[in-house]
Amino acid sequence: MRRLPVYILLDTSGSMRGEPIHAVNNSMQVLLSTLRQDPHALDTVHISLITFDLEARVMQELTPLDQFPAVDLKTPNSGPTFLGEALKTVGQKVKSEVRVGSDDGKGDWGPLLFVMTDGKPSDTQTFNEQVEAIKSAGFAAMVGCGAGPSADVTALKRFCTSVAMLDTLDGPGFEQFFQWVSDVIADGSRSQNAGPAQVTELPPPPSEINIVI
Fold first, then answer.
1. Which class for 125: exposed (0-12), middle (13-18), buried (19 or more C-beta within 10 A)?
2. Among 24, 19, 23, which residue's Cα sits nearest to residue 52?
3. Residues 185, 41 contacting (CB under 8 angstroms)
4. pLDDT band at 136 (very low <50, low <70, confident <90, very high)
5. Would you tell me which of 48, 166, 194, 213 could form a disulfide with 109, CB atoms 3.0–4.6 Å apart?
6. How far apart are the C-alpha atoms of 90 and 86, rounded to whole Å?
7. Residues 6+ apart with CB under 8 A from 56
8. Pairing mode of beta strands 210-211, 162-166
9. Domain extents for the chain?
C-alpha cells in the first residue's frame, strides 16, 4: 500500500519551556491515539518528527503510525529559533525518504507538512534561502500554526498553504490544534487520489483555532 508521509516540525525553543512543552507532549499523544483508531490511517500514515531550537533535530525518522514511540520533548532554558534549519532538514529528509513513482510502480502519496512555532525565525538568512526550496519539495499541503502572541505568522505565510493561530500557549489550545491536525491527516489518508496539487480543502477547525490563510 502507498504511504502517506507526514512531517511534523515543532518549536522547542526556550520560550516553550514549562507548561507549553508539557501540553505539546500530551497533545502529540492525543494525535497518535486518535489516528490509530482510523484503520486507513493505520495502514498508510508514516510520521516523522523534527524539533527546532538552537538547532534542528530529527527526533523520529519516518515511521509507521503503529510503531511511532511516545513523545517526551525537552526545551533549553533559552536560545534561538532555527526554523530555517528545520526547513532545510525536512527538505533533505523528503528527498531521501519519500518514494517517487516510476515505471515499476506508484510512489508515496504527496507528503504533508505541519509546522508549529511560538516565535519567529532566528536564522533569517537560512530561513529566506529555504522558503522557496520547501515550496518546491512536493508537499500536498503545508500547514503552519502560530501559537501565542509572539508568533510570527508572517513568516509562516511565506511558505505554508494554510496558517492557523492559537491565542494562548495552554493545554486546551494545543490539544484542539493537534486534534485538528489528526483530522487533516485522516482525511488525507482516505483520499485515494491525493497528490501535490489536490489537497485544496482542509476540514473545518475548532473555534479555538483562527485560520489566517
1. exposed
2. 24
3. yes
4. very high
5. 194
6. 6
7. 50, 82, 85, 86, 88, 89
8. antiparallel
9. 4-211
> Could you report the per-residue pLDDT of 56-106, keeping only the tens digit for each?
999 999 999 999 999 999 999 988 999 999 999 999 999 999 998 877 778
Q: For residue 196, what pLDDT is reported? A: 43
Place of cell 532566528: 122
DSSP assignment of 48-104 equals EEEEESSSEEEEEEEEEGGGPPP------SS----HHHHHHHHHHHHHHHSPPPBTT
Helix (H) or strand (E) holding 22: helix 19-35
Cα–Cα distances (Å) from 81 to 6, 37, 96, in that order, read 22, 34, 25
Sign of CA dihedral 120, 125, 213, 59: negative
According to DSSP, residue 153 is labeled H
Residue 136's contacts (CB-CB under 8 Å, 6 or more residues apart) are: none
| Residue 120 neighbours by CB distance under 10 Å | 17
* Residues 5-24: tens digit of each pLDDT: 999 999 999 999 999 999 99
Residue 197: pLDDT band by 50, 70, 90 thresholds? very low
- CATH pick for 4-211 out of 3.40.50.410, 3.40.630.10, 2.50.20.10, 3.40.50.11540: 3.40.50.410
How many CB atoms within 10 Å of residue 158? Answer: 16
Please determine, for residue 50, whether its predicted confidence score (pLDDT) is greater than 90: yes
